[in-house]
Specification:
52% of the residues lie in helices and 14% in strands. With 382 residues, it is of the alpha+beta class.
Length: 382
């Protein structure tokens, strides 16, 4: 897909930010799991939190393809920074697409410049990817709703001003998804946000557990107005989320490939650069092929979203393939580096720790295969 001139400039801006500001400083934050507040503030100033916000609310209003390319660039520098705009952008998309006029006016201008950051809360401690087993619920309480339950592995939870919470508002509904709503929850009484959970990778940016114990929200906190529409709304939002996760994987994989290509020319053995050894050259060829295919799948899914078409199968394919490719490419980059690939002296060990998140996050790859198979049959019934 061809980006407009303005969109190409935004991608170039993200690339320059990564090269000049992020890559030289990652270890200041990553090694000790320090929140990168300074880099997040720079991202706000550069407009990255408003990429999917309509221009009338102060956003950049770029295509999904441009959003994916910016995400890729951020992840190429440090996947955690791409994660910082992930859930935020999904909630931006949900509010702009399904929100009432009041909800759009209330949230989108402040979300565009990062004054309000958003996150989405789906996963529960006992449910994982099985959202139909959701237990968090809200009941009518006077002129509002009272929420009870818990969510876990919620990225950016401690720094978010609004949480897009998927919960049951009708526990008797059959099937269960008909009783689900998205509530726009602002942190306050009745909501406890845990300390950040310790993680293998994706460091710096927090993931927390949320506990709702009689947390109250107003009646107009239901996304779009009437309750019971949350499942369809969130499934549409997850198409954007899975494109974003696929783009993160492409960025991590591209960083690993770049480092491997560089090292294969710097390192010599048996009197020649190691890329000239067939075993190393074949690794590089396969790595480059995987990353090109992953990028094209990601942009294909983004293009369908921009065309207003259903993209759950395509987004699932992109997320599945790109995440698995990033994992393999990160491992192969360690192989190219040999023993040094296992050392913190080189960044490839970080890519190897960051890559698994895209396999298990935003719906595990096992779930993606189920989605893909279901849509494949639905679109080709005999």
């Amino acid at each position: 897909m061809t980006l407009t001139d303005d969109e190409q400039q935004i991608v170039a801006l993200a690339s320059k930010f990564v090269n000049d500001r992020v890559r030289p400083r990652v270890r200041e934050f990553e090694d000790d799991d320090i929140y990168p507040g300074e880099l997040i503030d720079e991202m706000k100033n550069l407009g990255f939190f408003g990429l999917l916000t309509p221009a009338e609310y102060g956003g950049a209003d770029v295509s999904t393809a441009c959003f994916a390319r910016v995400t890729e660039e951020l992840a190429r520098g440090w996947m955690s920074l791409a994660g910082a705009i992930g859930g935020h952008s999904v909630i931006t998309y949900l509010i702009r697409t399904f929100g009432t006029p009041d909800q759009r006016e209330r949230y989108l201008p402040a979300m565009a410049d990062g004054a309000i950051r958003a996150t989405m809360a789906l996963t529960e401690p006992g449910g994982g990817s099985d959202l139909q087993a959701m237990r968090t619920y809200a009941v009518r309480d006077g002129d509002g709703w009272s929420i009870t339950g818990s969510k876990t592995w919620i990225s950016n939870a401690a720094h978010s001003g609004v949480i897009g919470l998927l919960c049951l508002t009708d526990r008797d509904a059959e099937p269960r998804h008909r009783g689900m709503s998205v509530l726009l929850v602002e942190p306050g009484d009745g909501l406890v946000i845990s300390k950040k959970l310790s993680k293998l990778g994706y460091r710096g940016v927090e993931a927390c557990e949320l506990v709702f114990d009689g947390c109250r929200v107003a009646a107009d906190a239901v996304l779009g107005g009437p309750p019971g529409r949350g499942w369809a709304q969130m499934m549409r939002g997850l198409e954007v989320g899975r494109v974003q996760v696929a783009a993160r994987a492409v960025g991590v994989g591209q960083a690993a490939l770049d480092d491997a290509v560089r090292y294969a020319q710097e390192r010599e053995s048996f009197g020649q650069q190691i890329w000239k050894h067939q075993s190393v050259g074949n690794l590089l060829a396969d790595m480059a092929t995987r990353m090109r295919a992953a990028r094209l799948l990601t942009l294909d899914a983004a293009e369908r979203l921009d065309a207003g078409e259903r993209a759950d199968m395509e987004a699932g394919m992109a997320k599945l393939f790109a995440s698995e490719a990033a994992m393999q490419v990160a491992l192969d980059a360690i192989r190219v580096h040999g023993g040094y690939g296992y050392s913190k002296e080189y960044d490839v060990e970080r890519y190897f720790r960051d890559a698994p998140l895209m396999i298990v996050g935003e719906g595990t790859n096992e779930i993606q295969r189920t989605v893909i198979a279901g849509q494949l049959i639905a679109r080709n019934r005999i």
